[in-house]
Design brief:
The protein has eight helices and four strands; from the N terminus they run E-H-E-H-E-E-H-H-H-H-H-H. It is α+β, with helices and mostly antiparallel strands. Strand 3 and strand 4 form a beta hairpin.
């Protein structure tokens, strides 16, 4: 197999890369990494010394590609399919990249902070950090609700890198910071993401691992 994906089915940034792979039916060899297993971690570290997933190894081109956004751009450039994740138009392309960063920095990362705090012992809890992370997510939800409006996908009619970023970020964040009743467009947008076949496949594969997610409310696997 040309491409090997090192990942874990429960990891949110891995979902982002998987959506892109499934969106275009890109052939790849899935390699699940268990960072809690010394042997699995050591084998992964030989591929990527930082041992952070997702990572793609392209055996044909001799390249190791890390970070979900970069992986998707790499796929778009060297293994393109019907769905193009970055627009050819430069003006549309920078907007796609900006909103991809928005989802990663202002929803995905604070969401991960909240999850990490759930896993800490009581003595290591960070109540101020949790409060700040929740506030960032709520503010970001409001911005996105206004920006997405009646659009089908984040940038309009076409599915893009932004939607790959949005799906895991919103799915997990909504289990920690429920959508406010005043939000109009964002809940429906998440429903469309969940119904998208590429993301539905990711969720189906992740569902057996949901008991390990340290939050009582689990990510949804079907639209409301």
């Amino acid at each position: 197999m040309t491409l090997k994906l090192y990942y874990h089915p429960l990891a949110s940034f891995c979902w982002k890369a998987l959506i892109a792979l499934y969106e275009n039916d890109t052939p790849f060899e899935p390699i699940i990494v268990d960072l809690g297993n010394a042997e699995s971690r050591a084998a992964f570290a030989k591929v990527w010394p930082l041992a952070k997933f997702p990572v793609i190894r392209d055996e044909v081109r001799g390249q190791t590609v890390a970070e979900a956004t970069v992986i998707i751009e790499y796929l778009d450039a060297f293994y393109p399919g019907p769905t193009r994740f970055i627009a050819a138009d430069p003006d549309a392309a920078w907007r796609i990249r900006m909103w991809d960063r928005f989802f990663d920095f202002y929803i995905h990362e604070p969401m991960q902070k909240l999850v990490a705090d759930r896993l800490r012992p009581d003595a290591g809890k960070d109540p101020l950090g949790v409060e700040q992370a929740e506030a960032t997510i709520r503010r970001s939800f409001a911005i996105l609700d206004e920006g997405i409006g009646a659009k089908t996908w984040a940038m309009g009619d076409g599915f893009s890198l932004v939607d790959c970023a949005a799906a895991p970020a919103l799915s997990y964040a909504a289990t920690l910071v429920p959508f406010d009743r005043n939000l109009k467009g964002l809940p429906s947008y998440l429903d469309r993401l969940i119904a998208r076949p590429s993301f539905a496949r990711v969720l189906a594969e992740a569902e057996p691992y949901f008991p390990f997610y340290p939050v009582e409310t689990k990510p949804r696997t079907s639209p409301h």
